[in-house]
Amino acid sequence: MTRPPFGFGPADRPDEPGGGDDPFGLSAMFGGAGGPFGGDMGSVFAQMQKLMSWTGGPVNWDLANEVATGATRPDDVPVTAEQAREVAEACRLADLWLDAATTLPASGSEPQAWTRTGWVASTTPAWRSLVDPVAGRVVAAMGTALEQGLSGALPGGVPEGLPPEVAGLLGGLGGPGGLGPLRGVMDQVGGFVFGAQVGQALGALAQEVLSATEIGLPLSTAGKPALLPANLAAFSAGLEVPADQVRLYVALRELAHQRLFASVPWLQAHLFDAVDAYARGIEVDPGAIERAVGSIDPSDPESMQRAMGEGLFEIEPTPAQQAALARLETALALVEGWVDAVVDAACSATLPSAAALRETVRRRRASGGPAEQTFATLVGLQLRPRRLREAAALWAAVAENGGPTARDALWAHPDLLPSAEDLDDPAAFVARTAPGNATETDWDAGLRDLDKDLDGTLDDDSSDGPGEQPPA
């Protein structure tokens, strides 16, 4: 089940950083000596005024960046020369092993060692592409619903006794301007609320993610691998596996992801379009508008967040959203399954802890770790490759039957990829697509019929019809 997009935040989880008395996660940004302003209230208010004047879209990305970097900066340390060398060596060895396991070529890009704040800066453009369509739909739906709800709630005009500023805002209702000045205020408050939540989520994820592509989406420039040494060290400390083997295994997964995203140019759009399709299906529950109207104070961002978390948006996805969600989940499973199968083929015989690390990563991805919770917070979707094991088994079966070439060739076009139904029966998919055994597809049949039609047309044109004379 999905949660309402942007409908919950740290205020609902007081045991987490930024919860309880700091529902927007701003303490790391503004408060105390660790904040960027060192507790200087003059600077704080000036920055708040700047952030509240954001006009760059439905998410206040200036605020998101401040909150995310404020959360990661206190315990973030620069990458040492030794850490950079270890990352480079692990990636070099990983590329050599992958050359024997996949036909997709290495990018040749120099691997990078990122700090946590470096991860935030490098992946923010991709997050913006993912989050803005959803946030824009939420803001538009909220505005339309408020306009309808307020118009219905105030059929006789603005009630007496309201504070002057509130009465002034509501006074614009009923005219051609709709919400009047309230619309602009609501957009700015919405951008502030969303920006704070996005920033807090990215800041939390930056402290745990191991590489640029760990969550299965291309969040950085395709073909440019990156690992986070600080997070790798923390991850390794909880395993009974040598740190160098953990680093090599994560490098293998990162470079396999990067080869796939760099070699399949349509894949990023395929994944992001599914998120956008989900966003287009967001609807507002009209019955909740009347309850929400009385609780929203344009001068209080928290009141808007509370309203948005109280059922304004459908929790159950619409049929269109279900289709988009199924498409996204299948694509994520195929990406993760391919990486899992390729990495296993590359290292199972040479890396002593390969089997244990494979199972650890599978559980980390399938159990709904920090990546899933972050994405659910940002766009209301569960980013979980639910069928990773089935997808990995299918890719392995294809490679066993036709070799890595046959397996990797299926990424040539989205229509060639296995479907969700194929994950249920890998043997049938292999039999259907194996060279010499493949049944004719609708595409093949269409091309064959088109060839016949063209041949017939050419034959007809080659002879003169009744009453026609050959050209002079």
From TrEMBL:
Protein origin, superkingdom: Bacteria
Compositional bias segments (type: Basic and acidic residues): 445-455
Annotated region (Disordered), positions in chain: 1-27, 434-472
Coiled-coil portions: none
InterPro entries: Zinicin_2, Zinicin_2_N
TM ranges: none
Alphabetical list of NCBIfam families matching this protein: putative hydrolase
Name of the protein in question: Uncharacterized protein SCO5199
Source taxonomy: Bacteria, Bacillati, Actinomycetota, Actinomycetes, Frankiales
